[in-house]
């Protein structure tokens, strides 16, 4: 990559100014691993800029065109006022789950500063709280599966994310009830949302996770989400991504999955509605006998657009992967 500054448009300049002006907020109570990662990511973003259709990986992605909108970068978290089900109810017939939520990119809970511990031993909470309450676990897994040099969106998320969901499934835990993340955008302003999730499965653990992206109003929004998932030795992950957004919303959904020996992940991406959507799956099979089964189905019409990108790495012999998108 040429060592030059590619920041050249108004939106990119706004991100740079935002970082420089709000360093205090971004660095405050920040885990050293996050602080280091933010600084490195910011430097990469200044070199990379945002991707364009001239970049090979992005030449057919219509999500690039949505960056011309006038997005709001500065906004405060919505204070907790009522249950998320009173704002929006994502009901799936016959599907029972423990629900956690993000509202406009921030963890939405009556006790946002505390971690929940389920009967199975699973720990769930805000990324901000997890940094403070579980620093050793957090630093062991945060930022290890993301390539900051891949594209400007990845670097941007690492530099500017404000919150997200943290889930820790301890060794040998078998989670009977699925965990559902309800990620909602509801604002009268056109937001640019950067959110970050970290999911950790210990050895011999099992969990089913449903990640739902929904919007309530019809305002244009750009959502830049990055999720890191560690699947430990002999662990089992069932991951479902369901997307039902308005026609004005653009979603970049980047998921990085790292798998150890004899682990198994099954991913189903279901895109029902949305303006411009790009799903990226980066899977690294780094232990023998690891398996990954990646599937997707999409139902789009008119000017809607979905772009599914899969990057599969077999880092060691004797692994298996399968892909089917329709």
Structure characterization notes:
Helix 3 packs antiparallel against helix 7 (152-160). The relative contact order is 0.12. An 8-stranded mixed sheet has the order 2-1-6-8-10-12-14-16, with no helix packed on it. An 8-stranded mixed sheet has the order 3-4-5-7-9-11-13-15. The radius of gyration is 19 Å and the shape is globular. Residues 1-5 have low confidence and may be disordered. The protein is of the alpha/beta class and 326 residues long. A hairpin with a 5-residue loop joins strand 3 (116-117) and strand 4 (123-126). The protein has 7 helices and 16 strands.
Q: Which structural traits does this protein have?
A:
326 residues, alpha/beta, eight-stranded mixed β-sheet, 7 helices, globular, disordered N terminus
H/I helix tally: 7
The averaged pLDDT comes out at 91
- What would the principal axes of the Cα set say about the shape? globular
Topology order in helix (H) and strand (E) letters: HHHHEEEEHHHEEEEEEEEEEEE
Structural class: alpha/beta
Fraction in beta strands: 35-45%
Assembly status: single chain
Helix content: 10-25%
Given as residue ranges, the uncertain stretches (5+ residues, pLDDT < 50) are 1-5
The biggest sheet, with number of strands, parallel, antiparallel or mixed sense and barrel status, is: 8 strands, mixed
Q: Tally the beta strands.
A: 16
N-to-C terminal Cα separation, in Å?
35 Å
Task: Tell me the layout of helices and strands.
Layout: H1 10-21, H2 23-27, H3 32-48, H4 84-87, E1 97-103, E2 106-107, E3 116-117, E4 123-126, H5 127-133, H6 135-141, H7 152-160, E5 165-169, E6 178-185, E7 192-201, E8 206-215, E9 221-231, E10 236-244, E11 249-259, E12 264-273, E13 276-285, E14 291-298, E15 305-314, E16 320-325
Parallel strand pairs: 1-6, 5-7, 6-8, 7-9, 8-10, 9-11, 10-12, 11-13, 12-14, 13-15, 14-16
Antiparallel strand pairs: 1-2, 3-4, 4-5
Helix pairs in contact: 3-7
């Amino acid at each position: 990559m040429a060592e030059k500054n590619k920041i050249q448009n108004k939106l990119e300049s706004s991100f740079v100014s935002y970082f420089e002006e709000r360093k205090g907020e971004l660095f405050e109570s920040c885990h050293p691993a996050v602080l280091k990662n933010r600084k490195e990511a910011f430097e990469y973003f200044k070199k990379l800029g945002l991707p364009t259709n001239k970049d090979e990986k992005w030449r057919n992605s219509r999500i690039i065109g949505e960056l011309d909108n006038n997005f709001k970068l500065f906004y405060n978290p919505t204070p907790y006022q009522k249950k998320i089900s009173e704002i929006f109810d994502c009901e799936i017939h016959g599907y029972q789950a423990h629900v956690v939520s993000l509202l406009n990119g921030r963890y939405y809970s009556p006790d946002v500063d505390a971690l929940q511990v389920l009967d199975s031993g699973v720990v769930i909470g805000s990324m901000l709280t997890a940094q403070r309450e579980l620093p050793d676990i957090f630093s062991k897994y945060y930022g290890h599966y993301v390539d900051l040099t891949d594209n400007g969106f990845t670097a941007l998320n690492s530099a500017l994310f404000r919150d997200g969901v943290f889930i820790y499934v301890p060794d040998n835990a078998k989670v009977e009830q699925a965990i559902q993340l309800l990620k909602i955008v509801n604002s009268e302003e056109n937001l640019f949302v950067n959110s970050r999730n970290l999911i950790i499965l210990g050895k011999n653990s099992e969990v089913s996770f449903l990640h739902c992206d929904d919007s309530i109003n019809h305002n244009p929004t750009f959502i830049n989400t990055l999720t890191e998932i560690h699947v430990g030795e002999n662990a089992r992950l069932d991951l479902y991504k369901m997307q039902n957004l308005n026609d004005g919303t653009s979603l970049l959904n980047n998921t990085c999955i790292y798998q150890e020996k004899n682990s198994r992940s099954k991913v189903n991406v279901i895109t029902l509605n949305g303006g411009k959507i790009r799903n990226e799956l980066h899977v690294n099979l780094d232990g023998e006998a690891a398996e990954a089964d990646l599937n997707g189905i999409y139902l789009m019409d008119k000017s809607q657009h979905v772009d599914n990108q899969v990057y599969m790495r077999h880092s060691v012999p004797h692994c298996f992967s399968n892909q089917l998108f329709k």
